[in-house]
Amino acid sequence: MFFSNIIVRRAAIVLSVIVFASGALSISAQIRKPASGAAQIRTINVVTEPDASVWIDGVLYGKTNGVGNLTITTLSAGVHSLRVRANGFKEITQPISAVQKGDIEVNLVKTTDPADLAFQKAEGLLSVDRDKAAQAYQEAIKLRPKYAEAQLGLARVLLELGDYDGASAAIAGARRARPVYPEASAVEGRILKESGEEAKAIAAFKRAITEGKGFQPEAYTGLGLLYKEKAEGAGGDIEVETANNTEASKNLRAALKQLSGAPDAMVIYQLEGLIYERMGKLQEAIDLYEEFLRIFPNTSEATAVRSFIVQIKKQMAQ
Q1: 133: closest CA among 142, 150, 121?
Q2: Measured between alpha carbons, how far is 128 from 122 in angstroms, rounded to an integer?
Q3: What confidence tens digit (pLDDT) does each residue in 74-123 have?
Q4: In which order are the strands placed within the sheet that holds 53-56?
Q5: Domain ends where: 74, 105, 136?
Q6: Which of 53, 82, 105 is the last residue of a domain?
């Protein structure tokens, strides 16, 4: 019972920090090291403007430092898409080739476009004042009605504020501007999940994955959380609980693979580990937590994860 209570408390902590709103990261990609023996992992150093946000394949990896550098040490093999945005500059997207490593220079051009500047203001307000962030997104949309990214940003912040109708309207606006928009479908899934429309949420998450040609970690995570909650609501039916936990684990594992060492993966690793523990797959949980420690050895969460391993081993020894 004591061990079970530990799992429940940890689950509450893990779920409280799951955030997919753009720009909301507290861990720098610079503190990570590649997994030992990971021959397919390479290091890049993005060189651009200071305090610029950096995305790879749509996943936010952090911000550049005061001299405009962000070192990412967990980039997988293959071709990737690099997107960079800094206040006062036009956002740019450029490819990363399959063999490219080391310094990657990204030359940003200043912008005076009022819609871009309003959008950037909104992004900067997300962690300060969500109401003002929503107002800034709305100003950007007023200036550029078919501003899909601003519509999506507005939907995210309204979702966080509990305005599901407003968030749904913003998603509809985003889809009018960009009919095939995986991120919009993923956020729609989150809105529907929070509104209690489970079947429609599942359909939206799956549509996001289809639109993203199989790549949509936010949608996979949304499915994982949805099935996890279904497992918790099984009412003691072990077969139903196990089926839903299995589905939750499968989707979270897909999200982990696609996040590829990005900061958001830290939370997903811990959530996946909790599901393994609840299913009694204690060795699998240990293996997952050890994988976490190989990828994120120097983060503040590493100490807690090491304690999880100690707790599980004590449980296994009883």
Answers
A1: 121
A2: 10
A3: 888 889 999 999 999 999 999 999 989 999 999 999 999 999 999 999 99
A4: 59-63, 53-56, 80-85, 92-96
A5: 105
A6: 105
